[in-house]
Amino acid sequence: MPADQPTKSRVRPLSVFREMLRDARTDTELEALIEMLAGDSRIGARAVETRARGRLASGRRERERLSGLLALRDELCGRGVHGIAGVDEVGVGPLAGPVVAGAVVLPAQIELYGLDDSKRVRKALRRTLAREIRETAIGVGIGEVSVEEIDQVGIYQAALEAMRRAVASLARTTEVGYLLVDARRVPGVTLPQTSIVKGDQKDASIAAASIVAKVHRDTHMESLGRRYPAYGFERHMGYGTEAHMAALEAHGPCPVHRRSFAPVENAERRALMDSQARI
Q1: Predicted confidence (pLDDT) per residue in 122-134, tens digit
Q2: Please, what is the angle between helix 204-227 and helix 123-136, to 10°?
Q3: Per-residue pLDDT tens over the stretch 61-103
Q4: Of 233, 277, 268, which is closest to residue 249 (Cα–Cα)?
Q5: d(CA 33, CA 258)
């Protein structure tokens, strides 16, 4: 046999190996594929092996990253703490729509690849992760505070209330014994809690809470976009983008704008002045 002739994998078309790579879901499957390709000198085989090794390494790095995000929770579990919930809120900055919070208790083992602060996850992956979190979590709670309440109590207190409601919602179906909270402390609860600055980037439970809250709020804003099409809520989710500010100037605020926010208040004042000038 010539020295450069491929091994017995030569009898298999490259399409078979590409399909095996596409369908591989575990390290064991990837390792088996790499072993089958060993010694196959075909350029296509080498490319498949390189991709398989890349996926294997990437998966291991991601598991190590997720393990780091679970370190504090696992430490608390090791001390006998049960029902550890991550809590986070979204929607503090927009000019329209509610503020929403999530509270999530994750299982002991997770495979939520790509889990991170919701702001750092692309939209399609956010939606996939939100579905996976709801399917695998021990419990999920959502808290929402309306525009009317935001205008009454201010956005800071509204965000705290959204988190309190998320925890209360979670506690109706799930044992909750401890809270890990992104940069705040949840008021009105007797549970022990730890506030973590940039917690949605450091803790898996908080990141999961930020994901489910973000997707919940985005879905709501998309429905508001259909109800008030002049403002484009489905595109900017109520944030003060250039297009949103132009719509405010052209049409004035709609019922779901936060009147306590200066740009909305100013736009409403100008709209009133314009209407009075036309009388």
Answers
A1: 999 999 999 999 9
A2: 120
A3: 888 888 899 999 999 999 999 999 999 999 999 999 999 999 9
A4: 268
A5: 56
For the chain, the maximum distance between any two Cα atoms, rounded to a whole number of angstroms, is: 97
Closest to 198 measured CA to CA, from 81, 125, 116: 116
**How large is the angle between the packed helices 262-278 and 242-251, nearest 10 degrees?**
30
CB 99 within 8 A of CB 91: yes
Residue 21 to residues 5, 7, 43, 132, 205, Cα–Cα distance (Å): 23, 19, 16, 23, 31
DSSP bridge pairs for 86: 104, 180
Give tens-digit pLDDT for 150-159.
999 999 999 9
Q: Which residue(s) pair with 265 in the sheet? A: none
Q: d(Cα 167, Cα 47) in Å, to the nearest integer?
A: 49
Instruction: Write out the chain in H/E/C secondary structure.
Output: CCCCCCCHHHHCCHHHHHHHHHHCCCHHHHHHHHHHHCCCCCHHHHHHHHHHHHHHHHHHHHHHHHHHHCHHHHHHHHCCCCCEEEEEEECCCCCECCEEEEEEECCCCCCCCCCCCHHHCCHHHHHHHHHHHHHHCCEEEEEEECHHHHHHHCHHHHHHHHHHHHHHHHHCCCCCCEEEEECCCCCCCCCCEEEECCHHHHCHHHHHHHHHHHHHHHHHHHHHHHHCCCCCHHHHCCCCCHHHHHHHHHHCCCCCECCCCHHHHHHHHHHHHHHHHHC
User: pLDDT tens across 36-71, in order?
Assistant: 998 898 999 999 988 988 888 777 888 888 889 999
**pTM metric for this prediction:** 0.84
